[in-house]
Amino acid sequence: MSRHDARQKLALEFGATDIVTERGDEGVAKIKEMTGGFGAHNVSEVVGTQESMLQAIRSARPGGHVGHVGVSHDVQVNGEDLFFSHVHLHGGPAPVRRYLPELIDLVWEREINPGKVSDLTLPLDRSADAYQAMDERRAITVLLSP
After folding, report:
1. Is the separation of the CB atoms in 40 and 60 below 8 Å?
2. Taking CA atoms, which of 24, 40, 41, 120 is between 20 and 30 Å from 128?
């Protein structure tokens, strides 16, 4: 689900078959339409807002799974709504340190290109600007340089 050209192009390049641009109730309705009224079996929620979490839960079919990997921004999940949706909610911080040595080697050996996702480079002392650029969707992710 994306409304931003750069993210859509990257998603298609990595294998996405469909892009849903609608949000909220319209986005949920589109997912239900695409799945014959059932909803998606697996949904990832990475934005961390109230709207995106509810959209993810409501887009999942009964018995489906929502993987929450973003940092929450005052997200409240009603236990009763979750209970009656029959959706499994899983999440936690990404275990970055576990994968970092392997990923650094892959970048060093030029087997993966972090530039595919990092579409803006800023100096380290402009990290606040980096977060603002991502928040305003002017960048997918930002590579900070020393």
Report:
1. yes
2. 24
pTM of structure: 0.77
Question: Can you give the length of the chain in residues?
Answer: 146
pLDDT at 142: 92
Residue with tokens 């005052």: 74
**Tens digits of per-residue pLDDT, 29-48?**
999 999 999 999 999 887 77
| Cα–Cα distance for residue pair 76/11, rounded to 1 Å | 28
DSSP 18-85: ------HHHHHHHHHHHTTTS-EEEEEE-S-SHHHHHHHHHHEEEEEEEEE-SPPSS----HHHHHHH
Q: Residue 42 and residue 59: Cα distance in Å, rounded?
A: 9
Residue 35 corresponds to which tokens in the numbers above?
Answer: 């799945």
- Stretches where the chain sits below pLDDT 70 are 70
pLDDT at 135: 85
How far apart CA 37 and CA 18 sit, in angstroms, is 16
Report the alpha-carbon distance of residue 72 to residue 82 in Å, rounded: 17
